[in-house]
Structures are given as C-alpha cells and as structure tokens.
Amino acid sequence: MSRLIGPPNKFLPHEWKHANQVQFRRSEQERTRSEKLTAECKRMIEESNTSTKRMQQDAQTKLEQRIQDIKFWRQELEQMFEEMVQEIETLIVFKSRVERALESCSQPLQVTLQCLAERQKRVAIDLVHDEVEEELLKEKEVTEGVMVLLQRTLEQINEQIRLVRSVKYCLDKDLKDKFQAERIDDFCSLLTNTSPGGHGGNSEFFSHPLLMTLTPEEWESICNINISKAEKEKNNSHSLRALVESLLEQTATDMRRQHDTTGRAMELRIQEAKAAKAELENQLDKLLEETASQEKNLEDLRVAVAEKEAPLRVAQTQLSTRSQRPNVELCHDPAQTRLLTEVKELANHVERLTEAIELSEMELKALAGQQLILEEEIQVKSNSIYIDEVICRQLRETPLDVF
C-alpha cells in the first residue's frame, strides 16, 4: 500500500524523447490518414455529383423520349379511335338503310300475294295458269329472296358493328392508359431536386420496386396489335359497306325489273282478254242476228205450210167429188191424174216444210244455247278483266318504293 502512494517513477531523458517521437509519428500518421480520407471523400463527392447529374440528365432524356413515344402512339391510337367512331356511325347508317329496304319489301310482297289471291277468283276457262301468274310467282320468289338476303346482310352489319365496337373499346382503354402514363411521365419530367413534395433521400420509395412485366418492344407490339386489329376491322367494314351498296342496288334493280315484267304481262293479258271479249260480243251479235233470221225463217215455214193447206184441201175435195162421177164417166183422165199428182206433191211439200220447221225449231234451240254460252263466256271475260284491270292494276299503281 505504501508503494502505491509513493512518488511516481521518473523517466529518463531518452525515454521522454522517444515518447515524444512516438506521439509525433502517431499524430503525423493520423493526420495523413485524415488528409487522404478528406481527399478521397472530396473525390467521391465530386464523382457522385457528376454521376448524379449525368444520371438525372440521362433519366430526363429517357423520360422525354418516353413521353414522345407515348405521344406518338397516343396520336396513332386517337386517329384510329376516331376512324372507328366514324366507322360505327357509318355502319349504323347502312344498317338503317338495310332495315328500311327490308321494310319496304313487305308492301310489294303483300301486293303480289293479293294479286295472286284475287286472280284465283277467275272462273271457268279463264282460271288459267297464264304468263301473268307465272310472273307474279316469280315476283313473289324474287321479293322473298331479297328479304332473306337483306335479313342476312343486316345480321352481318350488326356483327360488324359489334366487332368494331370491341376494337374501339380496346383502343379507348389503351388511350386512357397512355394518357395516364403520359401525365405521370410529364409530372416526373418536371420534378427537380428542389421540387416540393419529393421523396428526397427517403430510400423507402425504392425498397419495393414495381414488377415490370413488359419490355418496351412488347409494349410497342401491343400498340401495333391494337392498331392492326382496328385496321383489319376497318377494312372489313369497308368491304361490307361496298357489298351492301352493291346488294341494295342489285336487289332494287331485280325487283323493279320483275315488277315491270309482271306489269307488261298483265297489260298484255288484259288486252288479250278484252280482244277475246270483243270477239265473243261480235259473235253474240251475229248469233242474235242469225237467231232473228231463223225465227223469221220458222215463221215463213209455218206460213208456207198454212198456205199449202187450202190447195191441198181443194185438190182432195176435187178428187173426192170426181169420185162420184157415174158409170164410165169415172175414168182415169188427165184431170184425175193431175189432181192425184197435185195432192201427192202438196202432201210432200207439207211434209218437207214440217220437217224444216222441226229443224228450224231445233236450230233455234241450239242458237239459244250458244247464246247462253256466249253470254256466260262474256261474263267470265268481264270478271277476269275486272280482276286484272281494276283490282290488280289498282293494287300495283303505287310506285315500287325500293331503297
């Protein structure tokens, strides 16, 4: 214990010098390390500042380039989007045209069916499968075929509108995404080191980086795919519209041509029926004249028979009276011979005239029967003419309104 509180040991002068030299060297070494560290830190600061500036400039350039790329594709998509909107509107117009065309076929078809039904009311020999009926049946077939074709075309237009709207939806979605991406990148390009609200040195922003699933090439490929799909549907739409335009023109031409053909056939049939009716009326007039002539002939025959009764009665009376001559006076003299001949000839005349009367009466009956037939035929023709000229022609007077 007494050693511990005793006077301290004294060092020798060379020990003191050595200790000072050691402290000098340590101090020099520490200062040298500090100077090197300071120089290295300055170099690192300058290098980091240069690198940071270069990286920020490069990032800014990349952002600006990216914004330009987005703007380019957005403009492409916008143009295609507007074309799709216009195409949909145009297709809707074509759809309306086809719908109106389909509706306009109903009235001509009803007219055709009504004409066919009315012509079934023809009677007797006039209920014939003539050219008019053939053309009306063709007209019905053409109209029904056009309606089926238009209905099928309408379904194609509806499907094309659906496809174009689907493409338009994809373009719209892509446009909205690109608009938002451009807005974000515009905001990012405006940020500076002194911008308020920045993340600064907060490393948490980078601690959970987003999972980027697409490369720029894949991103551009998707844009191309959307535009290619739109271009394809636009071309399909153009082709369909050209087809519809041609179809409407061709079907309208076919219907008008058949309508005109049926009209000409009906006019010809009306003229034929009128000519036949006129000929029947002419025959009836001649028949009536012949009937009157035959009636007069019958009357003349009856008068002739009546006129023969008196001479026959006289001759018979004369023969009867001369049969009372006495004895030899009852001879067969020339007078007797003549009277016998006269009675025989008069009886023969009466018999022949009576037969002629019977024939005349039969002929009158035949004429009356033929008159009735002609009058019925004239009525048949009048009915047919009324059906074709009045009913059917009036039904078909309305102009054919096709597309």
TrEMBL record:
Q: Which domain of life is it from?
A: Eukaryota
What does the entry list under GO cellular component? Answer: axoneme; microtubule cytoskeleton; nucleus
* Localisation per UniProt entry: Cytoplasm, Cytoskeleton, Cilium axoneme; Cytoplasm, Cytoskeleton, Flagellum axoneme
Instruction: State the function annotated in the UniProt record.
Output: Microtubule inner protein (MIP) part of the dynein-decorated doublet microtubules (DMTs) in cilia and flagellar axoneme. Forms filamentous polymers in the walls of ciliary and flagellar microtubules.
Subunit info here reads:
Microtubule inner protein component of sperm flagellar doublet microtubules.
The entry sums up its family as follows:
Belongs to the tektin family.
Q: What protein name does the entry list?
A: Tektin
Source organism of this protein record: Triplophysa tibetana
